[in-house]
Amino acid sequence: HVLGSGRNVNILVLDTEVYSNTGGQASKSTPRAAVAKFAAGGKSVGKKDLGMIAMAYGNVYVAHVSIGANPLQTVKAFQEAERYPGPSLLIAYSPCIAHGIDMRTQMSHQREAVDSGYWPLYRFDPGSGEDGRHPFRLDSRKPKMTFKEFAMKEARFAMLAQANPEHAQHLMDLAQQDIDERWRLYEQTVGVERHAPDLEGEEEEGEGGAR
Asked: What is the DSSP string of the chain?
Protein backbone atom coordinates (compact mmCIF):
# COMPACT_ATOMS: atom_id res chain seq x y z
CA HIS A 1 0.00 0.00 0.00
CA VAL A 2 2.80 2.43 0.83
CA LEU A 3 4.70 1.80 -2.41
CA GLY A 4 1.51 2.09 -4.43
CA SER A 5 0.48 5.35 -2.75
CA GLY A 6 2.96 7.52 -4.62
CA ARG A 7 3.82 9.30 -1.36
CA ASN A 8 7.33 10.60 -0.73
CA VAL A 9 8.27 7.89 1.77
CA ASN A 10 11.67 6.24 2.26
CA ILE A 11 11.69 2.60 3.42
CA LEU A 12 14.78 0.70 4.59
CA VAL A 13 14.57 -3.10 4.76
CA LEU A 14 17.28 -4.84 6.80
CA ASP A 15 17.05 -8.23 5.13
CA THR A 16 18.17 -10.93 7.57
CA GLU A 17 16.25 -13.51 5.52
CA VAL A 18 14.45 -14.89 8.59
CA TYR A 19 12.07 -13.64 11.27
CA SER A 20 14.95 -12.51 13.47
CA ASN A 21 12.89 -10.89 16.22
CA THR A 22 11.00 -14.10 17.00
CA GLY A 23 13.77 -16.68 16.87
CA GLY A 24 14.89 -17.12 13.27
CA GLN A 25 11.91 -18.76 11.60
CA ALA A 26 11.91 -19.27 7.84
CA SER A 27 10.17 -16.61 5.75
CA LYS A 28 9.56 -15.86 2.08
CA SER A 29 12.91 -14.08 2.18
CA THR A 30 14.79 -17.21 3.30
CA PRO A 31 16.95 -18.55 0.45
CA ARG A 32 16.71 -22.01 -1.03
CA ALA A 33 18.84 -24.67 0.76
CA ALA A 34 19.01 -22.72 4.05
CA VAL A 35 18.06 -24.43 7.31
CA ALA A 36 15.83 -22.39 9.62
CA LYS A 37 12.99 -23.00 12.05
CA PHE A 38 10.07 -24.52 10.09
CA ALA A 39 12.56 -25.46 7.35
CA ALA A 40 14.72 -28.05 9.14
CA GLY A 41 15.28 -29.99 5.93
CA GLY A 42 16.46 -26.93 4.04
CA LYS A 43 14.08 -24.51 2.32
CA SER A 44 13.01 -26.10 -0.94
CA VAL A 45 11.91 -22.98 -2.82
CA GLY A 46 13.76 -19.77 -3.65
CA LYS A 47 13.35 -16.44 -1.89
CA LYS A 48 11.06 -13.81 -3.32
CA ASP A 49 12.69 -10.94 -5.19
CA LEU A 50 11.34 -7.97 -3.25
CA GLY A 51 13.26 -5.52 -5.42
CA MET A 52 11.70 -6.74 -8.67
CA ILE A 53 8.26 -6.67 -7.06
CA ALA A 54 8.78 -3.02 -6.11
CA MET A 55 10.20 -2.12 -9.53
CA ALA A 56 7.03 -3.46 -11.15
CA TYR A 57 5.19 -0.40 -9.82
CA GLY A 58 7.26 1.73 -12.18
CA ASN A 59 7.38 4.78 -9.91
CA VAL A 60 9.35 3.40 -6.95
CA TYR A 61 13.07 4.03 -6.41
CA VAL A 62 14.67 0.68 -5.50
CA ALA A 63 18.21 -0.17 -4.41
CA HIS A 64 19.90 -3.43 -3.39
CA VAL A 65 22.84 -2.54 -1.15
CA SER A 66 25.52 -4.01 1.11
CA ILE A 67 27.60 -1.55 3.08
CA GLY A 68 30.27 -4.16 3.79
CA ALA A 69 30.69 -4.93 0.10
CA ASN A 70 30.41 -1.44 -1.37
CA PRO A 71 30.03 1.51 1.03
CA LEU A 72 30.07 4.09 -1.79
CA GLN A 73 27.20 2.44 -3.65
CA THR A 74 25.25 2.26 -0.39
CA VAL A 75 25.73 5.97 0.33
CA LYS A 76 24.78 6.91 -3.24
CA ALA A 77 21.62 4.84 -2.97
CA PHE A 78 20.62 6.57 0.28
CA GLN A 79 21.25 9.99 -1.26
CA GLU A 80 19.29 9.18 -4.41
CA ALA A 81 16.41 7.73 -2.41
CA GLU A 82 16.27 10.89 -0.30
CA ARG A 83 16.19 13.09 -3.42
CA TYR A 84 13.62 10.99 -5.24
CA PRO A 85 10.16 12.67 -5.05
CA GLY A 86 8.21 9.51 -4.43
CA PRO A 87 8.35 6.17 -2.60
CA SER A 88 11.76 4.56 -2.26
CA LEU A 89 12.80 1.11 -1.06
CA LEU A 90 16.34 0.27 0.03
CA ILE A 91 17.03 -3.42 0.67
CA ALA A 92 20.19 -3.94 2.72
CA TYR A 93 21.99 -7.25 3.16
CA SER A 94 22.02 -7.82 6.91
CA PRO A 95 24.09 -10.67 8.41
CA CYS A 96 22.34 -12.25 11.38
CA ILE A 97 23.34 -14.65 14.14
CA ALA A 98 20.75 -17.02 12.66
CA HIS A 99 23.01 -17.42 9.61
CA GLY A 100 25.58 -19.20 11.74
CA ILE A 101 28.61 -17.06 10.95
CA ASP A 102 31.32 -15.44 13.03
CA MET A 103 29.92 -11.91 13.21
CA ARG A 104 33.45 -10.56 13.54
CA THR A 105 33.96 -11.45 9.87
CA GLN A 106 30.59 -10.25 8.62
CA MET A 107 32.03 -7.30 6.64
CA SER A 108 34.23 -9.55 4.49
CA HIS A 109 31.38 -12.05 4.33
CA GLN A 110 29.20 -9.37 2.78
CA ARG A 111 31.78 -8.94 0.01
CA GLU A 112 31.64 -12.67 -0.69
CA ALA A 113 27.84 -12.50 -0.84
CA VAL A 114 28.22 -10.00 -3.66
CA ASP A 115 31.16 -11.77 -5.34
CA SER A 116 29.14 -14.99 -5.54
CA GLY A 117 26.18 -13.24 -7.13
CA TYR A 118 24.05 -14.15 -4.14
CA TRP A 119 23.48 -10.47 -3.33
CA PRO A 120 23.76 -8.38 -6.51
CA LEU A 121 24.03 -4.63 -6.07
CA TYR A 122 21.81 -2.38 -8.16
CA ARG A 123 19.83 0.84 -8.26
CA PHE A 124 16.55 1.51 -10.05
CA ASP A 125 15.74 5.20 -10.45
CA PRO A 126 12.54 5.85 -12.45
CA GLY A 127 13.42 9.54 -12.68
CA SER A 128 16.64 8.90 -14.60
CA GLY A 129 14.64 7.82 -17.65
CA GLU A 130 13.54 11.40 -18.21
CA ASP A 131 16.99 12.38 -19.52
CA GLY A 132 17.43 9.23 -21.60
CA ARG A 133 19.43 7.17 -19.11
CA HIS A 134 18.34 3.64 -18.34
CA PRO A 135 16.60 3.57 -14.94
CA PHE A 136 18.23 0.26 -13.92
CA ARG A 137 21.91 0.23 -13.00
CA LEU A 138 23.74 -2.98 -12.07
CA ASP A 139 26.49 -1.95 -9.65
CA SER A 140 28.18 -5.30 -9.00
CA ARG A 141 30.35 -7.31 -11.36
CA LYS A 142 29.66 -10.75 -12.75
CA PRO A 143 30.01 -13.47 -10.06
CA LYS A 144 33.54 -14.77 -9.60
CA MET A 145 32.85 -17.48 -7.02
CA THR A 146 30.15 -20.12 -6.72
CA PHE A 147 27.22 -19.98 -4.38
CA LYS A 148 28.45 -23.12 -2.62
CA GLU A 149 31.84 -21.53 -1.86
CA PHE A 150 30.01 -18.68 -0.15
CA ALA A 151 27.23 -20.70 1.47
CA MET A 152 29.36 -23.37 3.13
CA LYS A 153 30.81 -20.68 5.40
CA GLU A 154 27.38 -20.35 7.01
CA ALA A 155 26.02 -22.96 9.42
CA ARG A 156 22.50 -22.61 8.01
CA PHE A 157 23.74 -24.21 4.78
CA ALA A 158 26.61 -26.36 6.08
CA MET A 159 24.50 -28.24 8.64
CA LEU A 160 22.27 -29.67 5.91
CA ALA A 161 25.33 -30.85 3.98
CA GLN A 162 26.45 -32.75 7.07
CA ALA A 163 23.04 -34.27 7.80
CA ASN A 164 21.95 -35.09 4.26
CA PRO A 165 24.73 -34.49 1.69
CA GLU A 166 22.76 -35.67 -1.35
CA HIS A 167 19.71 -33.52 -0.61
CA ALA A 168 21.91 -30.57 0.29
CA GLN A 169 23.77 -30.81 -3.01
CA HIS A 170 20.48 -30.95 -4.90
CA LEU A 171 19.26 -27.77 -3.21
CA MET A 172 22.66 -26.11 -3.71
CA ASP A 173 22.44 -26.82 -7.43
CA LEU A 174 18.97 -25.31 -7.57
CA ALA A 175 20.14 -22.30 -5.56
CA GLN A 176 22.99 -21.77 -8.04
CA GLN A 177 20.44 -21.89 -10.85
CA ASP A 178 18.41 -19.24 -9.02
CA ILE A 179 21.47 -16.99 -8.92
CA ASP A 180 22.40 -17.59 -12.56
CA GLU A 181 18.87 -16.93 -13.81
CA ARG A 182 18.49 -13.80 -11.71
CA TRP A 183 21.83 -12.47 -12.95
CA ARG A 184 20.81 -13.07 -16.58
CA LEU A 185 17.53 -11.28 -15.92
CA TYR A 186 19.33 -8.26 -14.48
CA GLU A 187 21.80 -8.17 -17.38
CA GLN A 188 18.91 -8.32 -19.84
CA THR A 189 17.15 -5.54 -17.95
CA VAL A 190 20.22 -3.32 -18.25
CA GLY A 191 20.48 -4.11 -21.96
CA VAL A 192 16.86 -3.37 -22.86
CA GLU A 193 16.63 -0.58 -25.45
CA ARG A 194 14.49 2.22 -24.08
CA HIS A 195 13.51 3.61 -27.50
CA ALA A 196 12.05 0.96 -29.79
CA PRO A 197 12.66 1.36 -33.53
CA ASP A 198 9.93 2.83 -35.70
CA LEU A 199 8.44 -0.50 -36.71
CA GLU A 200 5.43 1.15 -38.30
CA GLY A 201 7.68 3.16 -40.61
CA GLU A 202 9.69 0.09 -41.52
CA GLU A 203 6.50 -1.79 -42.30
CA GLU A 204 5.33 0.98 -44.64
CA GLU A 205 8.68 0.95 -46.45
CA GLY A 206 8.43 -2.82 -46.83
CA GLU A 207 4.94 -2.57 -48.24
CA GLY A 208 6.04 0.18 -50.63
CA GLY A 209 8.90 -1.92 -51.92
CA ALA A 210 6.59 -4.82 -52.58
CA ARG A 211 4.34 -2.80 -54.85
From this structure: -HHHH----EEEEEE-SEEGGGT-EE-TTSPTT--BBTBTT---SPPP-HHHHHHTTSS-EEEEE-TTT-HHHHHHHHHHHHHSSS-EEEEEE---GGG---GGGHHHHHHHHHHTTSS--EEE-GGGGGGT--SEEE-SPPP-S-HHHHHTTSHHHHHHHHH-HHHHHHHHHHHHHHHHHHHHHHHHHHH--SS---HHHHHHHHHHHH-
Domain positions in the chain are 2-194
User: pLDDT tens digit string along 53-76?
Assistant: 999 999 999 999 999 999 999 999
CATH 3.40.50.970, domain 2-194, yes or no: yes
The rounded distance, in Å, linking the Cα atoms of 20 and 155 is: 16
Q: Tell me the pLDDT tens digit for each residue of 79-120.
A: 999 999 999 999 999 998 888 888 898 899 999 999 999 999
How many other CB atoms sit within 10 Å of the CB of residue 22?
Answer: 8
Q: For the whole model, what pTM was predicted?
A: 0.84
Instruction: Dump pLDDT digits (tens) for 146-158.
Output: 999 999 999 999 9
